Amino acid sequence: MTAHTADKTRSEATPRQRWMAVLSRASRAEIAQLVGTDVPRHDILKAPETGTVMVEGRAGGAGRRFNLGEATVTRCIIRLDDGAMGFSYALGRDGRKARLAAILDARLQRAAPGAALHRAVDALAERQSAARDLASRKAAATKVDFFTLVRGA
Question: Contact at 8 Å (CB) between 102 and 86?
Fold first, then answer.
């Protein structure tokens, strides 16, 4: 996927898809900070459970798909007392992270756009984007271009 295609895909995502992506990339500490100490009352509809998913890659980012390998994923589904349901999928085996992310998903669905919780998730998304950009610049600095020198016949 090219950078342009990735940007286009991100811009076409719904607000919920965007915050779910941010929460899936966040650490448990970042998610716990967003939830705060006031964890709302909720029922666990599907307790955190861990499984695997197949990860696909593309040669050069745009070539044919191939199976890269499996990744461990934990999912959780909760329902807040007000009826809002929250879902989460997170890489790894951290059940607490998955539960807290599901709580945030439910709370974000109920929060008005522009509310403090939405602004906090947007700030987290900016930090994640800055970290990706920094890692990309560091990788680009180590890039080596190889070429073949053709000698005269």
Answer: yes
**Helices within 28-115 (DSSP H only):** 28-35, 95-110
CB 34 within 8 A of CB 124: yes
3-state DSSP assignment of residue 109: helix
**How confident is the model over 82-130, as pLDDT tens digits?**
999 999 999 999 999 999 999 999 999 999 999 999 999 999 999 999 9
What is the spatial distance between Cα 64 and Cα 43, in angstroms, rounded to a whole number?
43
The alpha carbon of 56 is separated from its chain's Cα centroid by a whole number of angstroms, namely: 16
> Cα torsion at 15, 17, 22, 24 (round to 10°)?
150
What is d(CA 91, CA 51) in angstroms, rounded to the nearest whole number?
A: 10
Check: CB of residue 89 under 8 Å from CB of residue 104. no
Instruction: Pinpoint the alpha helices (H) of the chain.
Output: 3-12, 15-25, 28-35, 95-110, 116-141
